[in-house]
Structure formats: C-alpha cells, structure tokens
Write a structure and sequence with these properties.
Helices cover 73% and strands 0% of the residues. It has 217 residues and is mainly alpha-helical. The chain folds into two domains: 1-52, Orthogonal Bundle (Arc Repressor Mutant, subunit A), CATH 1.10.10.60; 54-206, Tetracycline Repressor, domain 2 (Orthogonal Bundle). InterPro entries: DNA-bd_HTH_TetR-type_CS, Homeodomain-like_sf, HTH-type_TetR-like_transc_reg, HTH_TetR, Tet_transcr_reg_TetR-rel_C_sf. One of its GO terms (molecular function) is transcription cis-regulatory region binding.
Amino acid sequence: MASKREVEKQRKKSSIIDAAEQLFFSKGYEQATMDDLRAAAHLSKRTLYVYFTSKEQIYFEIMIRGYKKLIALLDEAPQTASVIERLRHMADTFYQFSKMYPQYFSAIFSYENRTTDFTQSVPDPSKEECYALGEVVLGKFTALLQQGKDEGVLQIDQDVTLTAMILWSSMSGVLRTAKLKKNYLENDHAISPESLINQAFVLMMRSIRNNSGGSLK
C-alpha cells in the first residue's frame, strides 16, 4: 500500500499534468513555456521542477494518458470475431478515438510525425513508458496480421512487422485526412470520413488478403 506521502506526490504530479493539458491544448505546445505551466498549476518554479524537468517530459506523460485510453478502446474488440472483423474494428476504433479524444489524438499524431520539436533530453521513465505503450498498439496490429497469415486468411510474403509498419503508416495518413479534412471531404467531394476510412481499409486488406479469405464488406 502506497504511503500517504507517495499518494500526495502522485496527486500533485497528476494535477500538474492536468494543468499542462489545458495549457498545451489551448495555447499550443510550442508556444507554452514552463513558466506558463508554473502559473497555471499555481506552483513555484522550484516545486514544478521537483516533479518535471522539462515540458518535453510532461508531453510524454500526456501521450501516456492518450495511449492508455486508446488501448482500453482497442481491448473492447470481440475476441471471437474473425481476423478481418477485428482488423476493421481496429481501424474504426482509431477514428472513434480521434473523435472522442481529439487532443490526445493530435498529441500522439504530432509526435509520431515530428511536427512537435523536442530539443531537450527526456528522463527515461516517461519516454520509455510512452514508447512501450505505442509498441503495445503496434503489437496488437502485428499480432492480428500474424494470426491472419497463420490461418491462411492473409497472404503476407514479407516480414509481418514490416507489413504492419507500412499499413500503419498508410492508415495514419488516412485517419489524419479524415480528421483534419472533414469539411473538405464532405462539402467538395460528398465523401464522409467514415466512407474514406472504410474504403481505405478495403484497399489495404485487398493487398494482403488471400483470395479465399472471405468478404471485406
């Protein structure tokens, strides 16, 4: 059982991350400073640095929260469904995550695409936990592809992890377009974000599906 001191330390740390979320999401990560965060969290600079050494470290903590929510959604997939159905559920879940938690989605996407500039070193625990959670997500996708290959549903002639990386990168681009270009898709081309994701999924699965693997609809 955690000591009273440890509980208070975790409570304080969580409250700082809460304040950082509001600050980063409203002002923007690049524009926000540690002094801004100190004021938002109502802390002295010395106290803030006891818990976090840089805003980069706090950004990783925010992504950790986002990854945990995403993984919880992915874990809701019915385990008795077919590989194709579970892959479709995964694609749909990513889009639902972007709608339910748009700020976490943006935080993770910005880091994965390096639109966020990290210039300082980040303590290993924060970075490593964030990376580990990202690998959990990729691992779920890779495991499904491996299962599909083993069952003969998917025809994957190259390394399964490499295939997962390629498909992951492709779907990330589609999700970004569906999320950021919603009005353009609907108003200029009469394409819903859901339709874009669905057709992208069909095209991607066709590239690796065994001809006898069943319907993608």
